[in-house]
């Protein structure tokens, strides 16, 4: 029993200390891996550090050196703090290491921060098109259709990104001569795992080891899900970025950064089709 417990403890501590990533290449443009240009598409100032920090911080250190961009589709004006929140976002992105020339915030009348408002996919597609095309974006990273927190602004985003990808695909004269971005969604996990916080890296690492063992038996390549996990340093960076959002620092945010899985782990799946009925 004791050796097992010791092994578990070592695994636990090491999984907190070292960041680890599995299938990270899935997100990169493999043929031109040095030329990956990755856009993080968010809805509000603070999404970048509350949900996406493990990925952004991992990509920043990735050996393929992808260029990282950030596009936020509202200034988060639901409570009237929009102008201040724009500044907070800028300071947060400074902490997360996204270049000043690579980040934008949009304030569009049809894309306003609102808890009850779904954003129109075609409006999103039109608004993001120039940023994607002009910057030769190869990969768009955004929420999935559950939006982590079920915020309608969040879960509208994959539909908009997918819409744009389809428009560009239809326009591309031939697949190789025109960059059609691939779209990836951050996976919304069930409620209980969402607040596993610091335990999440452990269970994720166990899962990966198990997966590797299973793959050996089944000769498969495993799933094509990319996972980014923060180590302690990255976690602290994400918390520092969150602290720049001073208008958002209410007591429940502290609970969130303490217990949320998304402060430690991001799982990604590629969007291959999306339809709204
Ligand atoms: C990317 O760049 C590195 C260093 O410049 C080089 O060693 C590597 O082969 C390049 N990879 C590709 C796929 O071009
Ligand atoms: C949010 O949207 C709803 C429905 O469109 C609207 O009635 C409400 O006034 C909006 N709230 C804010 C804060 O803009
Ligand atoms: Zn948000």
Fold and architecture overview:
With 277 residues, the chain is an alpha/beta fold. It has one domain (2-268): Rossmann fold (3-Layer(aba) Sandwich), CATH 3.40.50. 45% of the residues lie in helices and 14% in strands. The protein is built from 11 helices and 8 strands. It has helices at residues 2-17, 47-50, 53-60, 82-96, 121-134, 147-150, 152-171, 191-194, 200-218, 232-243, 251-259; strands at residues 20-22, 37-42, 67-72, 103-105, 139-143, 182-186, 226-229, 265-270. An 8-stranded mixed beta sheet has the order 1-7-8-6-5-2-3-4, with helices on both faces. Helix 4 runs antiparallel to helix 10 and helix 5 (121-134) crosses helix 7. The chain is globular. The protein starts with a helix and ends in a 7-residue tail after the last strand. The chain binds 2-acetamido-2-deoxy-beta-D-glucopyranose (2 copies) and zinc ion.
Q: Any key phrases for this structure?
A:
277 residues, Rossmann fold, 45% helix, globular, binds 2-acetamido-2-deoxy-beta-D-glucopyranose, binds zinc ion
CATH fold name, please? Answer: Rossmann fold
Radius of gyration: 19 Å
DSSP, total strands:
8
Distance between the termini: 53 Å
Any idea what the shape is?
globular
Main CATH class: Alpha Beta
Which residue ranges are poorly predicted, with pLDDT under 50 across at least 5 consecutive positions? none
Helix content: 40-55%
- Order of neighbouring strands in the sheet with most strands: 1-7-8-6-5-2-3-4
Please give the structural blueprint:
Elements: H1 2-17, E1 20-22, E2 37-42, H2 47-50, H3 53-60, E3 67-72, H4 82-96, E4 103-105, H5 121-134, E5 139-143, H6 147-150, H7 152-171, E6 182-186, H8 191-194, H9 200-218, E7 226-229, H10 232-243, H11 251-259, E8 265-270
Residues 43-44, 47, 151, 154 line the site of zinc ion.
GO molecular function: N-acetylglucosaminylphosphatidylinositol deacetylase activity
Pfam families: PIG-L
Organism: Boletus edulis BED1
């Amino acid at each position: 029993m004791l050796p097992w417990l010791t092994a578990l403890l070592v695994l636990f501590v090491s999984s907190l200390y070292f960041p680890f990533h599995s299938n990270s290449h899935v997100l990169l443009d493999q043929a031109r891996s040095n030329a990956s240009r990755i856009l993080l598409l968010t809805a509000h100032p603070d999404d970048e550090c509350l949900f996406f920090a493990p990925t952004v911080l991992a990509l920043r250190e990735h050996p393929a050196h992808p260029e990282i961009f950030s596009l936020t589709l509202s200034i988060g004006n639901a409570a009237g703090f929009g102008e201040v929140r724009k500044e907070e976002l800028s300071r947060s992105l400074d902490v997360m290491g996204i270049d000043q020339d690579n980040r934008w915030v949009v304030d569009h009348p049809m894309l306003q921060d609102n808890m009850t408002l779904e954003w129109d996919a075609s409006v999103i597609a039109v608004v993001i098109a120039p940023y994607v095309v002009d910057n030769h974006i190869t990969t768009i990273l955004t929420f999935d259709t559950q939006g982590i927190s079920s915020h309608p602004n969040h879960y509208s985003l994959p539909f908009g990104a997918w819409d744009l990808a389809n428009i560009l695909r239809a326009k591309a004269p031939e697949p190789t001569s025109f960059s059609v971005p691939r779209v990836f969604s951050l996976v919304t996990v069930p409620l209980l795992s969402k607040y596993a916080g610091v335990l999440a890296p452990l269970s994720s690492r166990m899962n990966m080891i198990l997966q590797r063992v299973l793959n050996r038996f089944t000769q498969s390549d495993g799933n094509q899900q990319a996972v980014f996990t923060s180590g302690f340093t990255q976690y602290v960076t994400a918390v520092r970025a969150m602290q720049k959002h001073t208008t958002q620092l209410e007591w429940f945010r502290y609970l969130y950064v303490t217990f949320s899985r998304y402060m430690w782990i991001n799982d990604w799946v590629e969007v291959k089709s999306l339809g709204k009925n």
